[in-house]
Structures are given as structure tokens and as C-alpha cells.
Amino acid sequence: MPEDLADVYRSTYRSLVRFLYRKVWDAERAEDLAQEAFARALVHKPDNARGWLFVVAANMARDDARKAARERRHLTLLKAEPGAGSKELDEEIDADTQRTQVRAALDQLTPRDREALLLWDAGMSYDEIATQTGLARGAIGTTLSRARRRLVEAYDAGSEGQHVARG
Amino acid sequence: MQEVRGNMSHVDDGTLHAYLDGELPPVERARLEGHVAECAACRNRLEEERALIERAIGLLGLAQPPERAAPPLHQLRRPSVVWRLRVPVAWAATVVLALGLGYYAGDRAPMSPAPEPVSMRSADSSAAGAAQPVDRLGYMSTPAPRLARTPPRAQSPVPPETRPLAAGERKEAERDRTTVDEASVVTGRDSIFGAAAASGVVTIRPRDTGAANVAPAPTAPTARAALPQRALEEVTTSNAIVQRDDARRALVATQWPIIRRGPARQILGAEPMGVPGLAVRNIRRSPTGEVVLVEQAIDSVTVIQLFQQRVEIDRYRSRSVAADSLTTERLARFIGGVRVEIAGPLSVDSLNRLLEQVKPIGP
Do residues A93 and A167 both lie within one domain? Predict the structure, then answer.
């Protein structure tokens, strides 16, 4: 196995799982897909393993989402309300709710803005994001600033149940 | 890159973000810093954008997958095979696992196949030898054989998600068991978890054979009376019982991997079961892949769990053999070829009513 892929694996596996998780929203599935991407990289030995992995992973996540959409309807996610009860359950439900709200907020971004944001969050540089998305490098800052603002606004609007006006 | 035009014009958002992300080339960076030093408005905006970036990072942090160790890279050749075979073969593999590695599963996972009739019969006979004051010890209705044959677990460490029971919890388990025992709705005499407990305790395993402290089967209650307190502690912290009780308390099962409806359907050979009208929070599977757990929310703090397992004919047989020696863990029903057990922080009556509504949920 190429030594550099082992390095990439160490440095990038978690990021790739995180990136995929925000696409498939199933931790186990995200890990499966990330591992599958690396398994393919072992075979293909791409030059730019890191970029290649994210491209392959994004494609797999897209195929996966299409297949999943055909196979199942969405599980109803629980909305938490304050109340007395088991502390662990409360925390678990809170975490679920927040995750759902972040997911809903991310859904409100344009695909390109979302992709740029997730790639940046996965540790990619502006150069790498530009290569991945086809955007000009000079446009990445603007794209990210828009993506971040929309994410925060959509999240706040969702959690307060009202729209937050912002310039 | 967006231009920063001297000190006269302000800086645009994209440039601020690129600067804050450490991605602005040195020349532009110097220009921006020069401008910001003189322009209070841009200084304010810089701080606003910095806060915005931190906020966005925080939000994305709320949507993190759990941290789990990466498997070694050289093992990744396997997943691509597993990946393709996964769906059709998964349930078949669990059957093989169940038949061939039952003892292993019994040790590792709460849910496991019932042991073979032979070993159950030995449990029966020794249980019959012991007297019946079950309620005294509640959770140990077949205490004598368990005490006698459960060696210390040094060779089979308790999985990380299990933990010893505190005294209060043990009491609680005892109380709940008694209540459940009294319920007349119980259709199955042992539970899915009960079977796991039995196989974890009674089945003779290769690794157990060398244990010097496997005592001969006691013949009378006196044997139990003579056992030191430490032995009792061992029983209460033994693998199977701890897991069983934890599962009742919905702790272990929350570690089970979440699966989608398709795989659940394949495990069960039927649609997963649930109470109609309740939100499905998660569908999970047991580590051995045999049991499906549907978690449904009644309200924001009350979640019920429906453990479901495909029932095969040989299981029926061993169950009837085991029936007398095992206690009932929770309310159960057979629906089609699936055994469904219910658990949740509710009264037996409520659980019973919910269980009666359970039916296949599916598209």
C-alpha cells in the first residue's frame, strides 16, 4: 500500500466521515462510505488522494441518497419540548433536535454553498475547494461568507420559529 | 480574490472571510490589515464576521457523527466486498453466527439464540433441584446453577457499555420483574434477553472448561445459603444479567447501530413492528444482527423500545424446553413470525396497552 495513502488515511478519515455524515445523516453509513472510498483508493492509487477521496465520497453519498430516497420514506424525527424526565434522554433528545435543526438549516443552502462549507469544515483549503467545486479560487471567500450567514440565519429562524431579518 | 482597494474603500465579506480563514495571499493580507487599522467600520465588521464563522463552526459541530476509531487501512480491502454483499447476505450471516457461534454471541451481546435443548435440560434439572423462593432474589430465579457455573469473567471482559448494577438498581430490577411476572398478558415465558442470559450462564463454553472454580452443581437450597456474599456479587455483576437489566433501562440498546427500514425488514423477514401513530425515533439492530429495536417517542421524554426478533421453529422448541426455568423479562407478543418485546419507562398496564396496538409499520 502506498505510504502516502496511509498518511492521508490517518489525517483525513475522520474529516471524510464528518463530510459524509452531513450528507447521509447516518453515522454508520458515513463510516461505511468513507471506508469504501479508501478501499477504492487502495486499488486506484490516485495522485491527489485527498481530493480524489472527497470527489468519490461525494458521488457515493449522492448515489446513496438517491437509492435511499427510493427505498424508504423519511423517519420522523422527534421534536423536543422541555419537560421533566431522565436526564440522559433529555440530552439525547436535545442533541437530536439540534442535529435536525442544523440539517434543516444546511438544506436551505444552495448545493454549491453547502458543498463549499462542508469541504471547508472537512479541512480543505481554498485551493482544494476551488478544485473540487469548479469555483474560482477568488470566489471561495464570498461563497463561504454567504454559506455561513445563511446557515446561521436558517438555524436561528428554525429554532425560534420565526425569521430573523438580517442584512 | 476580491480586491482591497487601498484605504479609501471598505473590505467586502468574501475578503474578510478569506482573511479570517488564513487564506488571503500576503500582499492582500497586508493591505487589508492596513485598512482595518484605520477604519473602525471595517474593524467592527471583521469582528462580526469572526463571530459568524465561529457560530457556523459551532452549528456544524452540533451535527457531528460519534467519534469512533478508524479500522486499520489494510483491512479496508474487505469492506468493498462486504459492501456489495452486505444486504443480501447480512441476515444469512447472522443465522450462521447464531447457529455456530452462539456461545460467543451469548457472551458479547444481550441478544443471542437460545441454547441447545441439551444444555437447557441440564439447567432444568438443577433448577428443579433447587427450591423455589424466587422472589427473595427476584432476578435470580435459577440461582443455584448460575452461581455454580458462572466462573469469574476474567477471560470474557464485560463490554464497555455494560456496568455493574448499583444496589438500588438491583432492587428496581427485582420489583419490575415481579410486576411483569404477575401480568397475565405474557405469551412467551422467556424473553429474548432471558434466552441470552441462559446461554451465557448454562451453556458450557470451551473457555470455561479450564476454570478451576466451576463448582459441582449444588443439590439443595443449602448450597445457595452456604455461598458467600462475594459469590452473590459475582452473579449480580455477571455479564448476562447486567446486560439484560441495562437493556430494560434502555442504556445498552442505545449503543446499537442505527439501521434503516430495509435492513430491519431483512432481519425480521417482515416489516418492523411499531405502535401506529407514534414517531419512530430510531431503528437499531443488535450487535449480532439478529434483533431489531424500534424506538418510538410518546412525548419528548418518554421513549418506548420494541425489541423484535424473527422466531424460528427450532427456537420454539428450545423455548418450550426452557420455559420452566426462565423468568419473564418483559411483556411480549408474537406477531406473524416475529416476537416483539416492549420496554419503556411506563407502567405495566400502559406498556401492555401499547403492546396490543403494535403492528407492522411500513410504507
Answer: yes
Contact check, Cβ <8 Å, A125/B12: no
Do A112 and A57 lie in one domain? The reply is no
Per-residue pLDDT of B42-99, as tens digits, reads 999 999 999 999 999 999 999 888 888 888 887 776 544 444 444 455 555 555 555 6
Number of domains in chain A: 2
**A156 or B200: whose pLDDT is higher?**
A156
pTM: 0.44
In SS3 terms, chain A reads as: CCHHHHHHHHHHHHHHHHHHHHHHCCHHHHHHHHHHHHHHHHHHCCCCHHHHHHHHHHHHHHHHHHHHHHHCCCCCCCCCCCCCCCHHHHHHHHHHHHHHHHHHHHHCCCHHHHHHHHHHHCCCCHHHHHHHHCCCHHHHHHHHHHHHHHHHHHHHHHHHCCCCCCC
A53 and A117 fall within a common domain: no
Which residues of chain B lie closer than 8 angstroms to A88, CB-CB? 251
CB-based contact (8 Å) between B22 and chain A? no
**Does residue A81 form part of some domain?**
no
Is A155–B59 a contact, with Cβ atoms under 8 angstroms apart?
A: yes
- Answer whether A40 sits within 8 Å of B80, measured CB to CB: yes
Q: Which residue has the higher pLDDT, B108 or B306?
A: B306
Q: Which residues of chain B have a CB within 8 Å of the CB of A90?
A: 301
ipTM score for this prediction: 0.81
Chain B, residues 29-48, CB within 8 A of chain A, namely: none
Q: Which residues from chain B sit within 8 angstroms of residue A96, using beta carbons?
A: 281
Identify the domain containing residue A50 by its residue range.
1-73
Mark which of A12, A40, A73 sits at the end of a domain: A73
